[in-house]
Amino acid sequence: MKKFLIVGIIIMLLAPFCIEHIKKQLYEKRIENYLIEDLSYPKKAIQSIECKWHFAGLPSYWVNVIFSDEPNVIYLYLAHDKDHLGQFEYHTIDGTTLSTEQLKHFKPCINLKQA
Description:
Layout: H1 2-38, E1 46-53, E2 61-67, E3 70-81, E4 84-92, E5 109-112
Antiparallel strand pairs: 1-2, 2-3, 3-4, 4-5
């Protein structure tokens, strides 16, 4: 009986971390599919996709995308709802300021895909 209680407590403590990891993977995959299937980017054009989470942030989840031909710029995407995906911000890795005309992949919008 004591072993079951200990195992139950361990599972309850680890479950939130597992859920966060699964959510991050889901959002990363959702944005990857959006870029490749909906926006027709080749897979090799995407250098990295990484979901970030912040406990008190709004949004609490976002996905950072770095494109191969623009490695100094991080584009931020929302992926909470699979029918409402889109880019909402960008920033440079080194803190420099770029105008939107200098950006190759700047498309700030929420995509309302039709089901």
